[in-house]
Amino acid sequence: MKRILTLLLLMFLFVNCISENKKNNKSEIVNNTKQKTKQKTKQVKSNNKQKVGENTYVDLLKRTKKYADNLDFNLDYIRKKGLADKKYLAEFLGMYLKINKALKSKSDKESIRKRLEPFYKETLKKGFHNMATVNDKLFKKNSMSYMRIMWLLDQLGFDISFYKKELEKVQKRMDNHMKIRGEWQKAVFDFYYDYFNIKKPSVLKNAKKLKGAIGTRKNLVFYNRQQAYVLTHFVFAAYDYGNKHTQTRFNDDDIKYLKTILSQIISKFELKRNDDLVGELLTCQVLIGDTKTAAFKKSYKRLMSRQNLDGSFGAYEAYRKKVGNDAEFRAYLHTTLVCFETFVEFEDRKSVFGN
């Protein structure tokens, strides 16, 4: 009897051992499968934002156009999240303005207009023109973009007569708002007031003389990220955002200073891999015609190689963990615009500066 009980116990342990091994093997297979799937998903996302490396202007243009056309840009969604819809719309339209400048064929122009038509129709809705009712914080975020959108639509060939009438309704608030704006912002607003032939408030009387740190010849130590961005916007305003090849804001000494300081700031922020800021700074070099130096050519080629495979510029995958796919319009959109702008403006000026 004792021997039988022993045999039964051994059989039970044997069967239990086999069952446990099967369970462990199954668990291991499931875990391995999950791990492979996770790695595969990560790899797909990584490849999507992998840097192109060796690149040409023609390929860069094709990728950027494809990225813009595929971008999921939904104004209703942006508004519902309480984000600055006009800021992002200005960036979206701004990217297509540069694409439109780069592409010459009639079919390309038509495809761009077709892509932008729904967004233009948004500006024909009363609800879009809410600048009279938003709080001061959102007004400050959107006010420059509000005027910029009207400028962009006009540049892109859309009728802005309705938009002008809506702007007139908030013109007094816009004029009073100029009092709290910084120097570079006043310089940019002054540009829009001139473009639309709007009577200026007294605070903008001397806006054309404003130069910021360019006029005081600040050294490299002064230029943190914010001050570097400020510098670029003085240059953009002077050159009508690329529409002009000459300007009247800066004298010869200012341009000489810019040629020295811009390359220094670019080197500083290249080390930090800040493609967004480097793109704006390189565009400034292009606008002032400082494109023949070895330093410019090296930085230009480097930035071109940093386009992502999907056509975007930038590296915001860590930010994506916080905001999800909103990272495309909240981060990648602006960086793609300002980087792409460098190459479009350079190509546009080849015959002017003999690049």
Describe the structure.
The chain has helices spanning 2-48, 57-70, 75-80, 85-102, 106-122, 136-155, 161-169, 171-177, 183-195, 213-216, 225-238, 252-270, 275-288, 294-305, 317-323, 327-348, 350-353. It has 2 domains: 51-61 and 211-355, no CATH class; 84-208, no CATH class. The radius of gyration is 27 Å and the shape is globular. The chain is built from 17 helices and no strands. By secondary structure, the protein is an all-alpha fold. Helix 2 (57-70) packs antiparallel against helix 4 (85-102) and helix 6 packs across helix 9. The model is unreliable at 26-45 (pLDDT under 50). The chain is 70% helix and 0% strand.
